[in-house]
Design a protein that fits this description.
The chain is an all-alpha fold and 160 residues long. 73% of the residues lie in helices and 0% in strands. Helix 4 (51-66) packs antiparallel against helix 5 (71-91) and helix 5 runs antiparallel to helix 6.
Length: 160
């Protein structure tokens, strides 16, 4: 029954994808393997041109790679994820939400993968554009920054 619900829910989300729902699913995906795989299933077939949703698709693939044990497949998935995220950043470099997605992946990626180069750059764009964001996105950013370890206490205070 859970599996059937998951498939129906995923199909519904595929057609009704809005950023609010995707944000919620992404936040949940960071908590458990099952949630990460459900988020991957939700985003895997996304093929439209919304750069923010493509960044989330990249994040979904990155999370899937985290739970893949076959090394070659894990590497392939991670490269695919990074490519989607980086292409989204290049296409819309001032988009704070895309920067937040990249920062969240870079913050939580093991050091040996060497995918941490843009954390300070992303933090700067997120913080300087915070006041220009929608109320909903501001709340999402605030929640992320509050639990993040890459933001200083003074940076966290700026968004309260």
């Amino acid at each position: 029954m859970k599996f059937l619900f998951s498939i129906v829910f995923s199909l519904w989300m595929f057609f009704m994808q809005d950023l609010s729902s995707v944000r919620e699913e992404y936040y949940a995906a960071s908590k458990t393997k099952q949630s990460a795989l459900e988020f991957y299933n939700l985003m895997a077939d996304y093929s439209k041109d919304n750069k923010t949703l493509l960044a989330y698709k990249g994040a979904a693939i990155a999370l899937k790679s985290k739970f893949t044990f076959e090394k070659i497949k894990k590497k392939k998935l991670f490269i695919e994820a990074v490519t989607l995220i980086e292409n989204s950043v290049k296409a819309d470099p001032n988009n704070a939400e895309i920067r937040l997605v990249r920062l969240s992946i870079q913050e939580n990626t093991p050091k040996f993968l060497k995918y941490k180069a843009n954390i300070e750059e992303d933090k700067k764009i997120i913080l300087t554009s915070y006041d220009k964001q929608s109320k909903e996105l501001k709340e999402y950013i605030k929640i992320y920054i509050g639990q993040s370890t890459v933001f200083t206490d003074s940076e966290k205070q700026k968004i309260k």
